[in-house]
Amino acid sequence: MATSDQVREQFDVVVIGGGAAGLMCGLVAGQRGRRVLIADHANKVGKKILMSGGGRCNFTNLHCRPDNFLSANPHFMKSALSRYTPFDFIAMVERHGIPYHEKTLGQLFCDRSSRDILQMLVQECRQAGVTIRTRHALTVDQLGPPHHLQGPDGGIECDSLVIATGGLSIPRMGASGFGLDLAASLGLPVQPTRAGLVPITLPGRKLRQLAELSGVAVQAAVRAGSVAFREALLFTHRGLSGPAVLQASSYWQPGEAMHIDLFPDGDLAAYLREQRALRPKQSLRNALSVFLSKRVAAEWIRSGLPDGPLDSLSEPQLARIVERCQNWQVWPDGTEGYSTAEVTLGGVDTSALSSKTMECRQHPGLYFIGEVIDVTGHLGGHNFQWAWASGHAAGEAA
Ligand SMILES: Cc1cc2nc3c(=O)[nH]c(=O)nc-3n(C[C@H](O)[C@H](O)[C@H](O)COP(=O)(O)OP(=O)(O)OC[C@H]3O[C@@H](n4cnc5c(N)ncnc54)[C@H](O)[C@@H]3O)c2cc1C
Question: Counting C-beta atoms within 10 Å of the first and last residue's C-beta, which end of the chain has fewer, N or C?
Fold first, then answer.
């Protein structure tokens, strides 16, 4: 334990983790005149910002609402999200002259590069007098306040300690269990963690059947449990991915099926009857190719659907085709796990925290923000919006 005469440095606020939430928290606290240190153990801050959105950072979503989040407490995120909205973040982006566009479904991306967002946050921190240190791992010696920390250069004392170390996904980008372990060591409740927004893997036999389709994308509605997402589905060499599958993966439980509708915008039986009336000699393969793509239609025929003209189809055959296309059931044997997951589900239980400030109820002056908390967003900019909003909430209080 560091004693006061061993303390080398004093800050008002120390933020452990210089990712999306930590940088936002640091700049807001700095703007309030607090002396802030952001300490990250990686060689750079904001690595996930840089790799996000395929290098263009899907930095928020215009339609971000509490029901875009998974949490054991679906109300927890409401306060922070309502006090720092997508439009607040957009205002900062516009102030910095960063060009952006809406891709689809309210998802805002940088026109140029994710680097723009990271540079903006770092510049805001600098202007607010925040100290940022990389390759700077801290340990918590004793909680206060004042809190005593140990760093590579000696003891540090601070009034507010903010844990912003993120989730477990993509360990090679600096992810660690630091925040979760600290919470557990303090006796705080932690919801079980698992990979979310992650491709699913299929068992060998199924994979061999679908091997030819690797790389093909189709539109689909993918349901896990009672929640369905209508977006693109991508066949991969290990199973299935694409936005619809990633979204559903956060709701999928091991041992359950995923239900996939490959004709998501309509009634396939009605479509096939209409085609039969218009072009009775059209092959089923051609009729299916219109929405399934040629390769998927060919595979579906090869694996047991009738290959005749539409006017030869009996009603039971029609029913089987509809079942196969509109209620295709796959039984994943797992997911690709944290090595490719965009997020970590679960985390520090929200019952331990104030929804207004993210401060720990049992430990005054200790805050948790961002993905380390049991709040996980849907794909499409919601996870960053949670990082900004929770970081902002703590930055105003710490
Ligand atoms: C490939 C990929 C793409 C994504 N794309 C998007 C997207 O486009 N839109 C979106 O909304 N979300 C996206 N996400 C999710 C988003 O990146 C995260 O939800 C968000 O970054 C979480 O912010 P955070 O600050 O809580 O954690 P992070 O951004 O992960 O930051 C945590 C920081 O803590 C540091 N750290 C960890 N352990 C320690 C320790 N012991 N000591 C010191 N520092 C430590 C890490 O080095 C890191 O800098 C993506 C995620 C991935 C993996």
Answer: N
Fold of 4-195+344-397: FAD/NAD(P)-binding domain (3.50.50)
Residue 46 DSSP class: -
Angle subtended at Cα 86 by Cα 84 and Cα 90, rounded to the nearest 5 degrees: 110
Distance 21 CA to ligand 1 centre (A): 8
- The per-residue b/e assignment along 314-351, b for 16 or more CB within 10 angstroms, e otherwise, is eeeebeebbebbbebebebeebbebebbbbbbbbbbbe
Establish how many alpha carbons lie within 13 A of residue 29's alpha carbon, considering only the half-sphere containing its beta carbon.
Answer: 31
Ligand 1 pocket check for 23: Cβ under 6 Å = no
**19 ligand 1 Cβ < 6 A:** yes
| Nearest one of 328, 333, 321 to 244, comparing CA atoms | 328
The ligand 1 atom nearest the CA atom of 381:
11
CATH class of 199-335: mainly beta
Q: Give tens-digit pLDDT for 306-333.
A: 988 999 999 999 999 999 999 999 999 9
